[in-house]
Amino acid sequence: MAEKKQYKDVASSGLDAVLPQIDWFKNYHRNYTITIVIPEYTSLCPKTGNPDFGTITIQYEPKDRIIELKSLKEYIFAYRNLGIFYENAVNRILKDVVFAIKPVWVSVKGEFTPRGGIHSIVEARWPAKK
User: Fold this and answer.
1) Alpha-carbon separation of residue 73 from 23, 40, 57, 117 (angstroms)
2) What's the Cα-to-Cα distance from 62 to each of 20, 26, 68, rounded to whole Å?
3) Architecture of the domain spanning 20-126
4) Beta strand pairing status for 51-61 and 34-44?
5) Phi and psi for 72 in degrees, rounded to 5?
6) CA 104, 66, 77: angle at the middle one, nearest 5?
7) CA of 88: how far to CAs of 7, 27, 38, 46, in Å?
8) pLDDT by residue for the chain (130 residues), tens digit each?
9) Domain boundaries along the sequence of the chain
10) Which residues are catalytic?
């Protein structure tokens, strides 16, 4: 099925946006999991410009680096004025976390506030499931 033209122009919105860097600090431990819950995620729908709201949960096993939370907060706040679809946001966050900390594994889950009676949950993992 061909992609509708009205979405083709905005389908990749936000993927190449310049966002603040996610900083890190050295990890001195092994074999444990960190879960970060961000209940005030906001962005804009790239098609309508309406605000999107949700909770982003990042869960990972650190290798040599741990996410510095203030920088993560500034990174997530940068999405507030960014037009980006849910799927792109979750996958972009995953990509940027992997780039910043190179974890053993990581999962990013977005649970978005219902709009028009539809509640979306998007989850991406690295490394990808086989």
Assistant:
1) 11, 10, 13, 29
2) 21, 10, 12
3) 2-Layer Sandwich (3.30)
4) antiparallel
5) -65, -40
6) 110
7) 13, 29, 17, 11
8) 455 556 667 899 999 999 999 999 999 999 999 999 999 999 999 999 999 999 999 999 999 999 999 999 999 999 999 999 999 999 999 999 999 999 999 999 999 999 889 999 999 999 987 6
9) 20-126
10) 45, 52
